[in-house]
Amino acid sequence: MPAPHGAIDHEALSALAAEPLDWRFKAVPVSAWGTTIGEFLAGRPRLSDLGTPLLTLDAPALDANLAAMVAYCADAGVELAPHGKTTMAPELWSRQLAAGARGITVANVPQLRVGRAFGVRRLYLANALVDPAAIRWISAELDADPAFGFSSWVDSRRTVALMDEALRGRAAQRPIDVFVELGAPGGRTGARSITEALDVAEAIAATPALRLIGVAGYEGVVAHDASPESLQAVRDYLQRLAGLHSRLLTSGLYGDVDTVWLTAGGSAFFDQVVEVLGPMSTQGTKVLLRSGAYLIHDDGFYAGISPFSRGVGKPLASAMHGWARVLSRPEATLALLDGGKRDFPFDEGLPMLDPMRGSVTSIVDQHTFVRLDPRSDLAVGDVVRLGLSHPCTAFDKWSLIPVLDDASAADPLVTGLVRTYF
């Protein structure tokens, strides 16, 4: 079901079209300086009007990926609050919300502030909130806006005490909703055992300033590939989440909340989340995925590990591409491109070139090294398209990203400019 119109501030989004273009945006040509985003797009620019290096988005792929995840969640009977940290692009968040997402997940307080600046009505902070000033700020936001929904994770009695101390004397009208987080040994945050998590839940229940609404976890901490062993580790972890939820139900620590939530699910193993936690959905319990990379996808890490690439459904398409120009061909078998680590992601694999054109062997700050067949006709000045891996570390390098009507066309039309806030 589409989210209500008030899920995000559409006036704030519309105002982005009036932002002036200048030297701050490396995707923008000098010829566009002094115009606004709206004016630039009204001139129907083409890819060839933009310089390199460049990151672009492909409109058809965005549409297809969005529809695929909407259909999957509907069929599985789960809710979705996509992780906004992947893009930090309110324009893309708006599309996800309009397609039915329950809210937007963020990872830290700066990202939370972006969400509030654009009026996102329901935000999930997938982390502990322990900064006293931030705790008081979010409490004031909740009191000032009855339609605003917020929750964060708690994994220790100390976190509960810090939140309670920060709110003491505020006379808050609404408690802060929290999830007790269960982690894994050697992983990131989260109580390390069900016993510890139950102890945290007892502390939450004893604190009027907080309200326990569910159990949270992230299965990506226990596996980084889709081998049978890794998938079993993910299932084992999710079974522990389910066990914690069952213990909380029988203990009565959820109190009188109408709906309790089980939330997990990155972009690599959300099918396992549905398989293990889905059966626990009842009238009073719902499952919430937080997958974020599905909308953009990639040609590398997620192309190999996404459930949609493992037989769950039709594979997603990479909606992001890099573009770089040959700067030098100093050797018969070597070309240097004008994009590097400051432009393209490299933490989950190097950029990829059409094998018929060459292969990327390394990447440094401002250059990409391409190994060529000595007979290659790739020449200085030629522009090549690159496949990329890991959208989370692609978007943070670009404050404005052109959207193309068809990235595979000879000279695509630029139909949008997506603003990011990192």
Description:
- This is Alanine racemase.
- The protein has 422 residues and is α/β, with parallel strands linked by helices.
- 30% of the residues lie in helices and 20% in strands.
- It contains twelve helices and 16 strands.
- Strands 1, 10, 11, 12, 13, 14, 15 and 16 form an eight-stranded mixed β-sheet that branches. It has an eight-stranded parallel β-sheet with strand order 2-9-8-7-6-5-4-3.
- β6 (176-181), α8 (194-205) and β7 (210-216) form a beta-alpha-beta unit.
- The longest helix has 24 residues, at 228-251.
- The radius of gyration is 23 Å and the shape is globular.
- Residues 1-5 have low confidence and may be disordered.
What is the strand and helix layout of this fold?
Elements: H1 10-15, H2 37-42, E1 54-58, H3 59-76, E2 79-80, H4 90-98, E3 104-106, H5 109-117, E4 122-128, H6 132-144, E5 149-154, H7 157-167, E6 176-181, H8 194-205, E7 210-216, H9 228-251, E8 260-264, H10 270-277, E9 285-289, H11 301-305, E10 320-331, E11 334-337, E12 359-363, E13 368-371, E14 383-386, H12 392-395, E15 400-404, E16 414-419
Parallel strand pairs: 1-15, 2-9, 3-4, 4-5, 5-6, 6-7, 7-8, 8-9
Antiparallel strand pairs: 1-10, 10-11, 10-14, 11-13, 12-13, 15-16
Binned, the helix content reads 25-40%
Q: Judging from the principal axes of the Cα atoms, what is the shape?
A: globular
Largest sheet: 8 strands, mixed
Query: What is the CA-based Rg, rounded?
Result: 23 Å
Topology order in helix (H) and strand (E) letters: HHEHEHEHEHEHEHEHEHEHEEEEEHEE
Class from secondary-structure proportions: alpha/beta
